[in-house]
Amino acid sequence: MDRNMLKSAKKIVIKIGSSTLTDEEGNIDKEFIKELSDEIRKIVDQGKKVVIVSSGARIAGVSTIGKWSRKEDIHYKQALCAIGQVELMDSYRRIFWEKQLHVAQILLTKDDFGSKSRTLNIRNTLFTLIDEGVIPIINENDTVSVDEIKIGDNDMLAAYSSVLWGADLLILLSDIEGIYDKNPKDHEDAEIIYEINDVEGIKKEIDIGQKSSFGTGGVSTKLKAAEHVNKFGIPLAVVKGKEKGIISKLLEGEKVGTLIYEEIN
Ligand code: ADP
């Protein structure tokens, strides 16, 4: 895919991973949210529209209440998410408003994407918010989602949301520059893959070269999310969230991050 085509993307979903949203102490990284609000203000001023999918509720919960970080009980995990979600949205609300941007919270579960009437309601609310210039911030509704019924990963939640909205591009903000041939955290010589147009093929290549870089890591869900959105003609990009101006660079067609687009004939 010619990266210049990204310049014309009008409807953009941005998914933010937990590690991007938090600082080294595990607190919400307000500086990052400020940077993000600058980028989004710029995009909105260009007449484009943005939906955010944000992780980070549980970590925000731990840093807010200052305990339970090691609790494995599902109800404590859900309680932490309930506490952290408020904190997270409060940060978004205050920081985005400094750029005259309103935000809205949408909490979804897997069931919401399986029911026609719910999907229609979500879509209508989403379109209303966006038409009115409000930035929707989507997260999984952890309070009602136990493991068996979870979407499980916000990469997939972002993929489903992109299809539901009919987005032009899904951007995953991660803690790495893109997808590599092996885990860059374990291998100094790992090389970034700038373009992927055969997801099945890449899966095999990475799998053969470095089994451990697959399976448990976040890369497999990113490729799964890409496969899902690509089916609907939506490209997916993985970029390093904390790199200054990264969203603008990507949208200007610069060769940053990994762009995954497999054309389905
Ligand atoms: P996020 O929450 O930011 O979306 P994840 O933790 O889910 O990110 O996935 C990114 C992580 O996947 C990286 O920090 C990296 O350590 C790991 N990883 C494993 N294999 C690879 C690979 N081949 N290329 C890039 N990252 C990889």
From TrEMBL:
Catalytic activity: L-glutamate + ATP = L-glutamyl 5-phosphate + ADP
Annotated positions binding ATP: K15, S174, D175
Subcellular location(s) per record: Cytoplasm
E.C. number: 2.7.2.11
Pfam families listed in its UniProt record: AA_kinase
Record CDD domains: AAK_G5K_ProB (cd04242)
Main location: cytoplasm
GO CC annotations, alphabetized: cytosol
Top-level taxon in the UniProt lineage: Bacteria
Entries under InterPro entries matching the protein: AceGlu_kinase-like_sf, Asp/Glu/Uridylate_kinase, G5K_ProB, Glu/AcGlu_kinase, Glu_5kinase, Glu_5kinase/COase_Synthase
Record keywords, A-Z: Amino-acid biosynthesis, ATP-binding, Cytoplasm, Kinase, Nucleotide-binding, Proline biosynthesis, Transferase
Domain Aspartate/glutamate/uridylate kinase: 10-239
Molecular functions per Gene Ontology: ATP binding; glutamate 5-kinase activity
Pathway annotation from the record: Amino-acid biosynthesis; L-proline biosynthesis; L-glutamate 5-semialdehyde from L-glutamate: step 1/2
Residue positions binding substrate: S55, D142, N154
A Gene Ontology biological process term: L-proline biosynthetic process
PANTHER family (UniProt xref): GLUTAMATE 5-KINASE, ISOPENTENYL PHOSPHATE KINASE
Function, in words: Catalyzes the transfer of a phosphate group to glutamate to form L-glutamate 5-phosphate.
Record-stated family: Belongs to the glutamate 5-kinase family.
Name listed for the protein in its UniProt record: Glutamate 5-kinase
